[in-house]
Design a protein that fits this description.
The protein is an all-alpha fold. Helix content is 66%, strand content 0%.
Amino acid sequence: MEKSLIAKLKIEFNCKEVDIKEYSPLALAYIGDSIYDVIVRTVVVERGNRSANNLHKMAVKYVNAATQAAMADALQEYLTEEELAVYKRGRNAKSYTKAKNATMHDYRKATGLEALFGYLYLRDEMDRVIELIKVSLHKIQTDL
């Protein structure tokens, strides 16, 4: 059976096992932001070879606090209790920065969503990450 990316990374870089519940919500959001970005960029690139500038313009429609906040709102009824708790931890985390062109309210919701994606990625649940992204984008009537 083929190993997942996270499993390969843990083996190849000799990462120690850590209880995922010990990670700070901002650490989860840090990795979750990258995972979400990789998914969006992958889909955009796979949909057609374009200039990097064009690809970036397409990706920014999805990778921004306002869209992610709308996605978070759309997902609430689809989350398990555990997922909702992770989202809320991320949303309520005290960050000392905020994205440009975003309200603090949207930024916090986006951080919660990124924390959830990071949590699921570190648990090797990428199928769930992809499912949540697809459901939320469909619900806000923005298909990737």
